[in-house]
Amino acid sequence: MNPSYSIWLVLGAAFVAANLPFVNHRWMLVGPRQEPKPLWGRLLELVVWYFLVGGLGLALEQHAGQIYPQGWEFYATTASLFLTFAFPGFVYRYLMRRRG
Known about the structure:
The chain is built from 4 helices and no strands. The protein has helices at 3-23, 39-64, 72-85, 87-95. The mean pLDDT is 91. It is an all-alpha fold. The radius of gyration is 15 Å and the shape is elongated.
C-alpha cells in the first residue's frame, strides 16, 4: 500500500471513530442500548476507539517497514487531533437544539 494512502486511511478512520460514541446509543457498536449513554461512557468509548485507531496505524506502519519509536509528544499530539476530530459528534449530541 502506498504510504500516502495509509496516512489518509488512518486519518479517515480516526475521524469516523472519534464521532462514533456521539452518534449512536450502542456500546462500541455492539448490542442494543435502551437508554442513552452517559457522558462518561461516551468519553471512555472515545479512549478505546483512540487506541484501536492507533493499533491500525501501528499495523500499517509495521507493514510499510520498521516501526519508529515515539515519545510522549507524539501521543499528546495524536490525542489532541483525535479530540478535535470528535468535536462535530459532540456538537451534534450535546449542543444542537432539537425541535419537537
